[in-house]
Design a protein that fits this description.
Elements lengths: L2 H6 L4 E3 L1 H7 L6 E6 L7 H15 L3 E6 L1 H6 L5 H17 L5 E4 L7 H12 L3 H7 L13 H15 L4 E5 L3 H10 L5 E5 L25 H10 L11 H8 L5 E3 L9 E3 L2 H9 L5 H26 L1
Parallel strand pairs: 2-3, 2-5, 3-4, 5-6
Antiparallel strand pairs: 1-6, 7-8
Length: 310
């Protein structure tokens, strides 16, 4: 698999693939992703970090924006609380094996130059467009705050100020990235990763909803959470257990089953696993047990490194 195909693997979209191919030719190149420090680091975050590791291996300098002011605007707590969580997030990302330049938004987003450029971007952006770009990001509120229209313009400004070549995010970031693509003169490639479905099958995986597996969960917690997860027989769409199997597990994969139900079954690819599940040839319990045990093995090194750091 060449460098481009490795970066493209498991992404939802790259805007544009041609731009990314040109950027890959550069000697020096930077990629960034921003995270609001607001809770436990879960599999949804890990999917993003895995992509940043792919970019790192492709020769990119990696910037992780610990977006404390964005989190503050999104009502995730006081700045002190948010920055404390940010330090925990940083330790987890390092335990995942990522080598990056970690920057808090408040380190540069209060600068005169940054603020003046923010005002210039604000003059180019309609209220309607700014609100629309936040539909999948903002906290639900009957009386939306002005912060909702400041947030996306700041994110566009971050891309410009940090002078990155690639911006990475979940698919919920797409509208903000397309706003950046329109407003900024520099050609930047935007990589959008899938948004993982929560274990309850309702909406995205989120620490605020409690429908997540944290990367530092114990084996017992992982087994219990997956046991209770939404995983209807024969249903593929919106099935969080199959999503975990797709984005995190290695193949060939052996599905452990009792002899009376056909014994162990080895599948060569995720596509084969999905087809067999759709045809109801794999029982949800067997799938859950296999995914739980494989995930425990995958996350074990992260838990061990975190233990050594604490």
């Amino acid at each position: 698999m060449d460098i481009f195909e490795k970066i493209k693997k498991n992404t939802a979209e790259i805007v544009t693939e041609e731009d990314l191919k040109e950027i890959l030719k550069k000697e020096e190149k930077k990629a960034y992703i921003g995270f609001e420090p607001s809770g436990k680091i879960h599999l949804g975050h890990y999917l993003q970090i895995k992509k940043m590791i792919d970019l790192q291996e492709a020769g990119f300098d990696i910037i992780i924006l610990l977006a404390d002011l964005h989190a503050y605007l999104n009502q995730k707590g006081s700045l002190e609380e948010i920055q404390k969580i940010g330090e925990y997030n940083k330790k987890v990302f390092e335990a995942m094996g990522l080598k990056a330049n970690y920057i808090y938004g408040s380190e540069f987003q209060l600068n005169k130059e940054y603020t003046l450029n923010l005002y210039k971007l604000a003059l180019k952006t309609t209220l309607k467009r700014a609100r629309r770009s936040m539909e999948l990001i903002a906290r639900e509120d009957e009386n939306p705050k002005v912060a909702e229209v400041i947030y996306p313009i700041m994110q566009v400004n971050d891309i410009d100020y940090l002078d990155v070549d690639v911006a990475v995010g979940g698919l919920e970031q797409r509208k903000i990235h397309m706003l950046a693509r329109e407003l900024l003169s520099k050609k930047v490639a935007y990589i959008h990763n899938p948004v993982l479905t929560g274990l309850d099958g309702e909406g995205k995986m989120s620490s605020s909803k409690g429908n997540f597996i944290a990367v530092d969960d114990s084996p017992e917690e992982i087994r219990e959470k997956i046991k209770k997860a939404y995983c209807p027989i024969g249903v593929v769409e919106g099935n969080p257990i199959l999503e975990i199997a797709k984005y995190f597990l290695e193949y060939p994969l052996t599905i452990k089953r009792p002899e009376k139900f056909g014994g162990d079954l080895t599948v060569k690819s995720y596509e084969e696993l999905e087809n067999l599940y759709k045809e109801k040839k794999i029982h949800p319990l067997d799938l859950k047990n296999t995914v739980a045990e494989e995930l425990i093995k995958i996350l074990a090194p992260i838990r061990e490194r975190l233990s050594s750091l604490s």
